[in-house]
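The following block was generated as part of the benchmark described in Methods. Ligand: NAP.
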Amino acid sequence: MILVTGASGTIGRHVVQLLRQSGQPVRAMTRARPGHAMPPGVDVVQADFEDPASLRRAVADVRAVFLLTAPATPTPDHDLALLTEARAARVGSVVKLSAIGTGERFGSATVGAWHQTAEDAVRTSDLSWTVLRPSAFASNCLHWSGAIRAGQPVSNMTGDGAQGVIDPRDIAAVAVAALTDPAHAGKTYTLTGPELLSVPDQARQLAEVIGRPVVSVDVPSTSASQQLLSSGMPPAAVEATVIGTAWARAGHNRILTEDVATVLARPPATFRDWAQRHREAFIGTP
Ligand SMILES: NC(=O)c1ccc[n+]([C@@H]2O[C@H](COP(=O)([O-])OP(=O)(O)OC[C@H]3O[C@@H](n4cnc5c(N)ncnc54)[C@H](OP(=O)(O)O)[C@@H]3O)[C@@H](O)[C@H]2O)c1
């Protein structure tokens, strides 16, 4: 049995689907009540990273875990809680979803500090491990859909900072490879798409795909903090987000790697591919 955490989210959903398609037994973890929609044949476990007893049930008879945490405020506690139960249950391996730039110093700050603590715990656990460090998800621009449908500009918090924007399906495909092939044990993969794109570049490509203008407006870090705080994001999460966007704005995420192509033996999907598959999200009325 392979346990997929974050199974209802952007990456986890694809991991569950791809594992099922390859005939692997899958257990999907969600906090939702039983009956939560998952593909047929998937074992669903109701569990919460904050409830150790529920994690114990989630890891029972599991040989590998896809570990994806998305705490509302940055903390490695969810990763650490799952690792504790996985070790006790003698789970064989863990594939940890982290983020590009994790642990890099940027001025007086550290990028992805909470992921770094979690990565360290994964590497020093007695489980076999693989760490995935993806670049910016193509799906982040789904946040723009309301503004685009309403004919309004979209916010650009990273200026001209280009990033190796990646299709979530490629991240999931690499995760599935790591969960099912021991050749990936002990590896840290930095996962990027095939081209460096700034937000204005993405806006241009999206506009071509959907056939209507997409205008981006630069939001400097100070205004970004205010915008995110007023959206209700917890202050610690705002701080971590603004460190990440300032780091990308300064050009530190101008990184392309061959890791997706090496693991999957095919090139990563382009942002345009992703936009074509999701064009419906950006058209129609708000
Ligand atoms: N967005 C990017 O560009 C980017 C780039 C690099 C790395 N990352 C990393 O990617 C991760 C986010 O991945 P994602 O976008 O796939 O996440 P997501 O779509 O936000 O989904 C996260 C899932 O986690 C589950 N969850 C949240 N709190 C939980 C809890 N207390 N107990 C159990 N489950 C919980 C939720 O499932 P239920 O509601 O069903 O319980 C949710 O579906 C983060 O670690 C982030 O740092 C993101």
